[in-house]
Amino acid sequence: MPIDHGFSPGRRRWLNRTGTGLLALPLGASLGLAAPAWAARRENDAVLGEAGARHLLARTGFGGRPADLAAYAGLTRVAAVDRLLARPPTAPLHAPPADALEYVSPQRLKEMREEDRKAFQQERFRVGAEMRAWWLQEMIEADPSRALVERMTLFWHNHFVSSDQKVHAHSFMVRQNLLFRENALGNFGDLLHAVGKDPAMLVYLDGAQSRRESPNENFAREVMELFTLGRGHYQEGDIREAARAFTGWSIEPQTGEFRWRPFFHDTGVKTVLGRSGNFDGDQVLDILLAQPACAEFIAAKLWQDFVAPPGDDPAQARAIQRLAAVLRDSGYDLRATLGALLLSEAFWAPQNRGRLVKSPVDLVAGTVRTLDVTVPDALPLAFIVRNLGQDLFAPPNVRGWPGGEAWINSTSLLARKAFLERLLRGEDFVEPMRHFDGQQARYDDATPVMKRRTAQLREAFGQVGGRMDGDARFRLVAAWSAVRVDSSRLLDRFPDHRGLEAALLAVPPVNPLAAGGMNDAPTGLALIRALALDPAYQLL
Amino acid sequence: MDRRSFLFGLGAASLTVLSATSRAAPQMDSSRMPASGGAPDMPRGSPHYERLLVLVELKGGNDGLNMVVPYADPRYAALRPRLGLKREQVLPLSEAAGLHNALEPLLPLWRDRQLAVVQGVGYPDPDLSHFRSIDIWETASGAHETRSDGWLARAFAKAPVPAAFAADGVVLGAADMGPFEGPGSRAIALANADQFLRQARLAQPGGEAARANPALAHLLKVEQDVSTAANHLAGAASASPLKTAFPGGPFGQAVKTACQLVASNAGVACLRITLNGFDTHQNQAGAQAGLLRQLGEGLAALRAGLAESGRWNDTLVMTYAEFGRRPKENQSGGTDHGTAAPHFVLGGRVAGGLYGAEPALDRLDGNGNLPFAVDFRQLYATALDNWWGIPSRDILGGRFASLPLLA
After folding, report:
1. Helix, strand, or coil here: B106?
2. CA atoms within 13 A on the CB side of A313
3. Fewer Cβ neighbours under 10 Å: the N or C end of chain A?
4. Is the CB of B204 inside 8 Å of chain A's CB atoms?
């Protein structure tokens, strides 16, 4: 395979080598015409029904609102998947908070007076919360097709991990989020090249500081181990050599933009995965994209997020291979790949329903969506998902959130249930919170009871929630008080409890409710609450 | 078999649990007891979970040089013109090392030779990020290896804790599961025992495990774990209060909860107690003194509380933190992220004294940080191999020599 030796921020160079006609076709046609023999064609023409719509929208977009379920229930699988993948706008519904987009250079920070710097750090905490609330709000308000963009944005956030804990610049994190959004259903190769030059990534994996005299191997290692190939498909020597090629990709500290620094770059010959040349970073990324292991690695990761956890089932291994072939043959086209995944037999197989554990975002945003909860301001929910173990913009380490069963331990399970119970306690649930700081009284009039209130805040929103102070604290409480559960719409749509079960649970409840006719069988909101507190509600 | 723990198992304390939950109290199942009793360093048979391990996390990265002070080293005084402690400000342990005077409550333990001070604990190629370095410590991994399962979760998966225990691990003073994080462990966080008991009523135990769906099976296991722990703890709450006086403040209260839990005989293999606030980049002197006072008073109270319920001789306490701090003080009267640091190991069977190596202030690395002398995984190996009798090699991913810390 020839390698382009000139430096050019080449887009799709790998496509020229592997490209097929699939990309050029409109998606519907491509899925219809190119549907491989293994796709179960007959079922794909069947109408989804409510359970099918629930499954599709839960796995692709944090759950559907009652109106979405109704709209999708009458579609065939092919039509539904086509509709989901029809080019949704990737720009966010609401612009990110302006404060979060503001870049503060290290120089400016250094020149601040001590007290200004302190104030700035305090402000950072608030802006960090706003940024998280913004993304959650996008997830909550998205229509099904946008919700898939949101889910894929979260997928890439957990794949190309950067964390605000190290990056320490909200503007970098928000810009990275916009990059993930723009490429959410685009081309994996384009995304990989863009991520390599992304300022958040250049800080997070130390690329910005890497110089030819002592190349930093952090990005080179993770790009092979976690972003493209997986362990076992490269040697330590490949990492060392690739690290040399990535030198020179840096940041302009005054503006926070990507900057190419030729004086940092090692111009010598490097040997990566058996190929030698005076490579730059883009060329090394192309070498990685040309490895067969790359598509397999990404396909397996998509499978794990959308279909079933990894296992030793040979049928599953074959299905992942077929998905990898679609990814590779399409030149890393993500829409074509997701189309194939969503029309695969395994995606719809009854034995794969309820096999995934809801992430905190699935649980919180999903509950809000499926129960049609009114959330004017998602700020409290940002603290709740963090408390449940998924602090958006701050995955625990470069591997991201491990997910699956690791989401559930005694603490997180009880915190999940406490959230659901608090949300679904009844129409009066807001009262204790509404009087928490008093609608009229400001937070600082209420110091005598502050301690108890802080404890309440902690219990509802976690340790960090308890640290919210001043106006931010007031807003947190006010926002939580404004959350409204209107169960009537859901109950009107699903008057009998079997229908409600099917709309809310991926598998039958572990603790079946007393059948109708008994006096103490729960009804109304109590019925919804009982279903939400069943262990089965934690599954996807 | 250890006579003390046998008597304890049949003791009056267990009756509360028996009546409260109609479950067998821990340590009563004779088939689970070690086949042969004996010296703690010669384990045979099943693990000695009748011995308690208590981990104390000094969150934020404690400044080791001002905790165990190399007061006689002129380089120390040169690196710390403002923060350095003088000879008369420390409690000398040797000609070279002295404790910060806020740790005076630990002196009785030192005199009774139940306090081991292990100097220079760290690991190769140290990471200076809080998040990354605490991951390395809590997953017992190398600096270039990323794991997500805690070292104790792996230990409990390999050598299961008796089912009659309330939990494998209990976390106090923090929300994260730290070294207990992982699929194998039954760990609960008791930031607040009342809150746990209140929330535990939402658990739904007893669902039939669906083997075909591992995710559901895992959920049902956790629902059951919560109920089991809550049943035990409800019994603990009604047990008679301890006479030991515990210090105020969150750390003292966490120590109190720990002692009550142990006294109730609820059964737990390991407790992790977190003391927060050691990230002292500025104005360190007063802040660290306050923290060390809490630490010293808290550990002394832990000893008294556990001795009151007859468990001190079955207890091994170890401190840990993500890193120590930089020898050279910074411009803000604080210290920045560093590497190796001293840690305390204490307990009724600990062979007190100084271990490890004095801080090599003449051999600082490129960042101005200390080299390590003892790998932190050697401390873990000591707990696994010599305390519990669980082969550490598989759990720690390699051979780490244990330290002769147990008498």
Report:
1. helix
2. 13
3. N
4. yes
